[in-house]
Amino acid sequence: MKYVPLIGRVLFSIMFILFGMNHLTAGDTMNGMVPSFLPFPGLIVLATGILLIVGGIAVLIGYKTKLAALALAVFLLATTFLTWAPQLASAGDDMIPMTMFMKDMSLAGAALLISYFGAGPMSLDAKAEAKV
User: Fold this and answer.
1) Which terminal Cβ of the chain has fewer Cβ within 10 Å, N or C?
2) DSSP summary character for residue 123
3) What angle do CA 81, 109, 112 make, to 5 degrees?
4) Overall average pLDDT of the 100-115 stretch
5) Average confidence (pLDDT) over 27-41
6) In degrees to the nearest 10, what's the CA dihedral of 104, 67, 10, 84?
């Protein structure tokens, strides 16, 4: 059972690392997803890309996991309510906004659980606690 949190962290974090790299390599496409009332969409995409990569790697290796997971949860909730929620009313038969809304809500819930419970026994956090 000690491997379950590690497997969970791997499965959870890979997506954030890949999405973060996508923010950095396909910024022009991502700029269109930034709500129009926010300034500097290119900078927002760059900053969130870095956040996703750093947060994903921190959760993956179990370093400062609670803080990293909390940062990812805040990002996910902001994305859910600023990007996907406004599209729900006008989506019609398009299920993509609802799917993305529910995915991000679920991931935010998982990130909050990780931020509460931590990384588990096979992590840098656990190794640091054992030394104290």
Assistant:
1) C
2) S
3) 110
4) 97
5) 89
6) 10
Closest CA to 129 of 72, 63, 71, 70: 63
DSSP letter (8 states) at residue 130: H
pLDDT, mean of residues 76-95: 89
Q: Residue 1, Cα to own-chain centre: how many angstroms? A: 25
Instruction: Classify the C-alpha dihedral 37-74-97-58 as positive or negative.
Output: positive
d(CA 31, CA 54): 20
Average pLDDT over residues 69-96: 92
pTM confidence score = 0.92
In the DSSP assignment, the letter for residue 91 is -
Looking from the CA of 3 toward its CB, the CA atoms found within 13 Å total 0
Query: Of the candidates 79, 93, 12, which has an alpha carbon nearest to the alpha carbon of residue 47?
Result: 79
